[in-house]
Design a protein that fits this description.
Chain lengths: ~270, ~240
């Protein structure tokens, strides 16, 4: 097994699969709740997390996780206080990215490969990274499965959730925390800029093929895995950057699914 | 029979504003109580207090221990990006068996849409599905929040008939909030006119002629707001088929 993990391509593939499993089912909620910008804001905040982690010499994963959770809860707190949600998220997404980039420039003596954080560096995933990525992905899946019915009810109708004894605000917080974990997990694999793509594109591609929320989540995960594996192969064969290749394959699958969905509908 | 719940001098503040002031209200088993009031009169707040989503600031609100409440929300907007069949929806957040789900859909005349996507249903079909969902809890108290919003008048009338039939079938108490006075009042045992506090209450005919009610809703609509009365001198055939 250890020898197997010596191969960088195997490590990259395993990392890609983990991110696919974590991001795609969560991405369904991002699509259902129209939270795409929320994903952006949390993802962009990751750069600030990287800068702080390097400055205080803690693990990048922990730094990103902390800052992402902070930004996600801050946005949730500020919403409904005089600004439209998309304005607020636009402010937070770009401000946290800008502040993060400024903070990185203050780090003297540390060479930071910004490109790796912005666009991911999946081919440089180490065995230790892999352990962190898989732990994070499993935590996301456990949380999602545990809270599934509650999250789904709160997504459909906060009123129905309240009547059923659930607290929609708490479910929103659970989603924010899951999102922060996904961002921290996906940072090394696809980078800050493309994390939202891994959330939304597989979910959108699964939509025309699904009739229940569960099938949509499972299909999204499969589409994301296919994108990760396919994108890495494409990167290897055509010498293209890995993260963007994964997203490109996901987009192709999205188009195929749209066509398949239309064909199915016209026939039935 | 003892009431299902009883509010005594209940007041609720939201963000420092008094939304409800010293409300006395109770609903008994088998009783249909309708709350009418203009927008912002605290109708939804009252319902939310009863389902336990908010706490009263003063006074008391006592529910019968273990009271089973069925709740039909004001409206349900299902994003078209969320695929969900009617039967799956009935299992949220508590799992319901297929036979149980089909039984309650049968009670509201919505069995034929069991396999359909929620986002494809008409307004009337969706209301019947939401009502079926509330019946899953085998409620002793059924709460409906503006349940006929978006239905046309015949649609509302048949929906209210359905609710009154369900009351007869399972003997639950019913508390509903409405702005549609002319249809609601006929099937109600008691009407409560709310505007931050209870302005007046009583039998539908009494409330409609009360000066407090006239002050709130006016008489300007003349004949259009005349009471709709049931004619009980003939028999209806109550088939709850959904009109497509």
């Amino acid at each position: 097994m250890n020898e197997l993990l010596d191969d960088f391509l195997i490590r990259a593939t395993l990392a890609g699969i983990a991110v696919a499993f974590a991001a795609a089912p969560l991405g369904c909620f991002v699509v259902w709740r129209r939270m795409a910008y929320f994903g952006d804001a949390t993802a962009h905040a990751a750069i600030l997390g990287v800068a702080l982690a390097l400055a205080f010499n803690i693990s990048v994963f922990l730094g990103v996780l902390t800052v992402s959770i902070l930004v996600a809860t801050l946005v949730a707190q500020l919403s409904g206080r005089g600004f439209a949600m998309d304005t607020l998220l636009g402010v937070m997404a770009h401000a946290s990215l800008a502040i993060g980039l400024v903070a990185v420039s203050f780090l003297s003596g540390v060479r930071v490969d910004l490109m790796a954080f912005l666009f991911g560096d999946i081919l440089a995933v180490s065995s230790a990274d892999l352990a962190v990525i898989w732990s994070g992905a499993l935590a996301v899946l456990v949380l999602l499965i545990w809270r599934w019915d509650a999250l789904l009810t709160a997504t459909m109708s906060p009123e129905l959730a309240r009547a059923g004894g659930l607290d929609p605000d708490r479910e929103q917080l659970v989603l924010s925390i899951i999102l922060a974990i996904v961002v921290a997990v996906a940072l090394k694999v696809v980078g800050v800029i493309l994390i939202t793509a891994m959330l939304i594109i597989p979910a959108a591609a699964a939509r025309p093929l699904a009739r229940t929320p569960e099938t949509m989540a499972i299909l999204a995960a499969l589409i994301a895995v296919l994108s990760a594996v396919g994108g890495l192969q494409m990167s290897l064969l055509a010498d293209t950057p890995a993260g963007p290749s994964i997203v490109t394959i996901a987009f192709c699958l999205f188009i195929l699914s749209l066509i398949a969905g239309n064909l199915y509908r016209t026939r039935s | 029979m003892s009431p299902l719940f009883q509010a005594k001098g209940m007041s609720v503040r939201l963000d420092g504003q008094v939304v409800l002031a010293s409300v006395n209200l109770s609903v008994s088993p088998g009783e249909i109580v309708t709350i009418v009031g203009p927008n912002g009169s605290g109708k939804s707040t009252l319902l939310r207090a009863i389902i336990g989503a908010i706490q009263p600031d003063s006074g008391s609100l006592d529910l019968r221990p273990g009271l089973r409440i069925g709740y039909v929300p004001q409206k349900l907007h299902i994003d078209p990006t969320l695929p969900v069949t009617v039967i799956r929806f009935l299992s949220l957040p508590k799992a319901a068996s297929r036979s149980e789900a089909l039984r309650v859909l049968g009670l509201t005349g919505a069995q034929s849409v069991a396999a359909r996507q929620l986002s494809e249903l008409s307004g009337g079909q969706l209301q019947r599905v939401l009502l079926a969902r509330a019946l899953l809890a085998e409620p002793e108290l059924l709460i409906l929040d503006e349940a006929t919003q978006g239905l046309d008048q015949p649609g509302s009338a048949s929906f209210y008939q359905l609710i009154s039939d369900i009351r007869d079938d399972i003997g639950c108490g019913i508390l509903m909030v409405s702005h549609e006075l002319h249809v609601v009042m006929a099937s109600s045992d008691r009407v409560i006119c709310l505007n931050g506090h209870i302005c007046c209450e009583g039998h539908p005919a009494h409330v409609a002629s009360a000066p407090e009610y006239r002050a709130l809703f006016g008489t300007g609509t003349g004949g259009a707001l005349a009471l709709y009365r049931h004619e009980h001198d003939h028999n209806h055939d109550h088939h709850h088929e959904i009109a497509e």
